[in-house]
Specification:
Structural class: alpha+beta
Number of helices: 5
Distance between the termini: 67 Å
CATH topology of the largest domain: Ubiquitin Ligase Nedd4, Chain: W
Number of strands: 6
CATH architecture of the largest domain: Single Sheet
Order of helices and strands: HEEEEEEHHHH
Helix content: 40-55%
Strand order of the largest sheet: 1-4-5
Length: 120
């Protein structure tokens, strides 16, 4: 920020305080930056908050793991949304496998009657 080549860290801190810049460390366990294409997940990052002139800036130090945020996240959340009881009801009514019942429920947005009709 200031290029403080051989500047003593305490002196640098004093100068920053004089200019109204406050820094504080944040004990973060994980930081996630979500974009349209991917999630950048920082595990055990070093995070510092820098406040100056009414604005807060966060500095993250660490190596992120990039994860695709589109298809995988949608399919995982869809599986979690369909209750196991609903899958069981469709299986009992149609004699379909659990996988087929879950797929039918997902395709019909959880509508039991529509899923049963789809498989009959």
């Amino acid at each position: 920020m200031f290029g403080g080549g051989g500047l003593d860290p305490r002196k640098m801190q004093q100068m920053m305080e004089q200019m109204g810049i406050d820094t504080s460390d944040i004990d973060a366990e994980e930081v996630i930056i979500r974009t349209a294409d991917e999630d950048l997940v920082f595990t055990s990052p070093e995070v510092q908050r820098i406040s100056a002139q009414g604005q807060a800036t966060y500095q993250i130090v660490g190596e992120p793991d990039a994860q695709d945020s589109s298809d995988d996240a949608e399919s995982e959340s869809a599986e979690e949304e369909i209750p196991a009881d609903d899958v069981d009801i469709v299986v009992q009514r149609t004699s379909a496998s659990e996988e087929q019942a879950r797929e039918a429920l997902e395709a019909e947005d959880g509508d039991l009657a529509a899923a049963v009709s789809r498989l009959e």
